[in-house]
Amino acid sequence: MRLAPWFVLPALLLACAPEPETPTTPVLPPPPPAAARGHWSDSLTWAPGLMPVAGADVTIPVGDTVELDVSPPRLNRLTILGALVVAPGRDIQLTAHEVHVRGTFRIGTEAAPYTRRFTLTLTGVPDGVVTALGSKVLAVFPGGTLDIHGEQRLGWTRLAATAPPGATTLSLLEPTNWRIGDRVVVASTDFDPAEAEEAVVTAATPTSVTLDRALRHEHWGTVQQVAGRSVDERAEVGLLTRNITVQGDSSSSNGFGGHLIIFSGGTARIEGASFTSMGQSGLVGHYPLHWHMAGDVTGQYIRDVAIWHTFNRCLTIHGTDRAVAQRNVCYDHLGHGYFLEDGAETGNTIEGNLGLSARTPAANVRILASDANPATFWLTNPDNTVRRNVAAGSVGFGFWYALPAAPTGFSTGQPDRPRNTPLAEFSDNVAHSNRRPGLNVDDGPKPDGTTETTSFNPRAGAVSNGAPVVATFRNFSAWKHTSRAVWLRGSSQRLDNAVLADNLIGATFASSETFFENSLVVGESGNVTPSPNASFPIRGYEFYDGTVGATNVTFANFVTTPTRPASALGYNRRNGFPISQLNFGTALRLVNANGAYLEPAQADKDGDKSALFRDIDGGLTGTPGMTVIADVPLLVSPGCVKRVEWNAWQCANRFLGLNIDSEGNEPVAPMSLRRDDAATVSLVGVPGNLKTVRMSVPMGRRFELAWVTAIPRRLKLTLQRGDVGDWIQVAIPYQAGIPFSVVRDFGTSTPLPAAASLAEVVNGSGDRYYWDAATSILHAKLFIRSGRTSTTLQVIG
User: Fold this and answer.
1) Do 71 and 121 form a contact (C-beta atoms < 8 A)?
2) Nearest to 671 by CA among 688, 687, 694
3) Which of 95, 336, 382, 760 is deepest in the core (most CB within 10 A)?
4) Is the pLDDT score of 16 beyond 80?
């Protein structure tokens, strides 16, 4: 990976920052000279024997070590070229406008964590000048090392019992070392992420804490057993207090907090600390904690840290590989939280982190347009390990795989191709109380920072023509989502061993060769709260696009009420796009659940009119091989059985996909199809493309095509997703007097000969067409030949 050195940051930041003023020189001036030796409190440490005074610039020279054993007066810039070591055994406060680490800044060690209280307060107000560092900054430059090792404390746990409104005591799942005076946050267990509550501990035992205020909302705290599996919707409880604090000063409430940045060649090992009032609203690169274009940082980590009340993200990994972000708490932040910035970040481990209360920044300070719907975890490259994290409440998304076509921003030109990169690991993660999907694989960023519809198609070698590589999202738990728990777009994906509960929609796959497996979906659990949309037809799994399907999935507690339908299976509602006739369910188990509900087809949505899926083993319908179809007359044949509770039919017929395309300048839509028994459907075309119509049709029937406007002169009809010998017959009105030819399976054969009679077409295998000059109707048969699953017929006029 080619990396931008630290000293080019100002110019690059200016390219992304909103309306910056002329930057100051990007090369920082040399620090003022000072001699340092011994303790900060000893006047002999300082040349010429004068202690640093308020507002001073202070330098620790190369080769010298100062032990910080007192709280100095407020400084301007502290530059560490040698080493500054915080003395153990005493409480220290350090206040500075800037701290530049070019040597070593150490607060405790891994082996001997700092156990007293240390507070670093970063000061300053916006000055209107955009530079690389700005003010209120703790910066680790090339060659610098920042070691922060606070007391080891359990960063977050879950409730062991439900806490009702008015409660002042929380029962905790694990033994903690939380104390009186600690600040904690309890996550929402409802649909509304704003039901997270913050309080101060007034009494504590290892497994309980008493709070300084009564809870306003219920917070769920029990594990339910549903259909033989566990459904865990217990609230997370995060510890915000640490004995080491890095913070912005009291003026930070205006959105201009402190920020920590680690450049390439710098080293940061941070644990057991609290970062609050950090991040600078609207300023690119001024984040609470930030590896910036740091390259391979093997051995570096940020773990067991609380990052809270921040103004511009939580933890950013930017142009950086093999960093570790572990067991952190990210609470009450503006914009995306845990943030992989450009799409070139790989090999990082994001494990055991909790994030909650992601908020939308004001429009004028959004770094990206997507910050309007912030994700607790914004992930721009699949080649990272994302394991055992919790996204516990956002006004936007939980986990958002926002994959650019190629790296953006400072990483433009890097060879990564995130949309084709195999998934390293996504396992044992939890999302709940989000207003958008808990897991969203779609909507990747463009170079200008806006997003576009995105297909994740993992391939060997991360190249578009490589062999497909299955991306498996394992052991995902998602509950209380206002929209849906999971949205996947692309191909070769699996959602395996998931538990989805209390969502308006469980999962929707706008994908192909993407399957839902070995999972439990619960419509309503015992954690009953008012729905944000009481009339919405809840469903467990939605078919869309395809081929997609569900295998070995249990659906429980989908019960229709007088105010809304409920079902295990359904289709993406109000769908205008084509679907696969091979979409399926198999080995499905229903426990107190209505099997399916297909909403009434909308007149302007051809996808609704085509909706169907196959019940492979009969687990839904009771008969293997049945197809469940929408209540559309063209699809319903004699022998189909109406299922009123499904608003659908079950049929023994086989169904194929019929594509009708105009290859000339005329549109093909609107048009209609009329079956041989007069059942008719009107079709409006694929959204945004009036030259294409897609429809499901029963095999072995005759269909008349009709147009209300001009008849297209160049037509292509494709019958697809069938078996050898499958067929339909078509009658196509055509303009008399216009010469035409008819070609089957274009590119592999010569034009078809004309038949002498209609009977030759009816009784044949698609190797003749018949022109009825009296009615100006072209008759043909689409017949799938050996070795094929589709056939094409072209009319070329």
Assistant:
1) no
2) 694
3) 336
4) no
Among 35-49, 57-71, 259-273, 564-578, which is the least confidently predicted range? 35-49
**Same-domain check for residues 93 and 177:** no
CA nearest to 656, candidates 727, 716, 732, 601 = 727
DSSP state of 251: G
> What are 699's two structure tokens?
């095999």
In the predicted structure, residue 31 carries a pLDDT above the cut 50: no
Q: Looking at the 3D structure of the chain, how many domains does it have?
A: 3
Q: Is there a contact between 82 and 102 (Cβ–Cβ < 8 Å)? A: no
Tell me how far apart the alpha carbons of residues 148 and 243 are, in angstroms, rounded to a whole number. Answer: 11
* CB 285 within 8 Å of CB 162: no
CA distance 416 to 424: 14
How many helices (H) and strands (E) would you count in the chain? 3, 67
What would the mean pLDDT of 18-47 be, rounded to a whole number? 57
Residue 6 confidence (pLDDT) above 70: no
How many CB atoms sit inside 10 A of residue 45's CB?
A: 20
Q: Do 218 and 263 belong together in one domain?
A: no
Q: Is 219 found in the same domain as 272?
A: no
Together in a domain, 231 and 247: no
| Separation of alpha carbons 625 and 616, rounded Å | 5
The angle formed by the CA atoms of residues 564, 567 and 571, to the nearest 5 degrees, is 100
Residue where a domain stops, chosen among 205, 239, 273: 239
Same domain? 685 vs 763: yes
Q: Clarify whether residues 129 and 177 are in a common domain.
A: no
- Per-residue pLDDT, 30: 47
Phi/psi at 363 (5° precision): -55, -35
pLDDT at residue 709 in the model: 83
Are residues 266 and 178 both part of a single domain? no
Q: In the numeric block, which tokens belong to residue 176?
A: 């903690």
Mean pLDDT of 517-541: 95
Distance CA 691, CA 661 (A): 6
Strand, helix or coil at 532? Answer: coil
Which 3 state secondary structure label does DSSP give 651? strand
Is 759 in a helix, a strand, or coil?
helix
- 15 within some domain: yes
The residue written with tokens 């644990």 in the block is 271
Asked whether the beta carbons of 727 and 744 are under 8 A apart, the reply is no
Residue bearing tokens 């070609």: 743
- Verify cis geometry, omega within 30 degrees of 0, for the bond prior to 578: no
pLDDT in tens, 659-692: 999 998 899 999 999 999 999 999 999 999 999 9
Cα angle 768, 773, 779 (rounded to 5 degrees) comes to 35
Helices (H), 114-211: none
The Cα–Cα gap between 288 and 403 comes to 23
* Whole-number Å distance between alpha carbons of 596 and 531: 20
**Could you please report the per-residue DSSP string of 617-681?**
SSTTTSSTTEEEEES-TTT--TT-EEEGGGTEEEES--EEEEEEEE-SSS---SEEEEETTS-EE
pLDDT in tens, 368-416: 999 999 999 999 999 999 999 999 999 999 999 999 999 999 999 999 9
pTM of the model: 0.93
Residue 306 belongs to domain spanning: 1-153+243-334
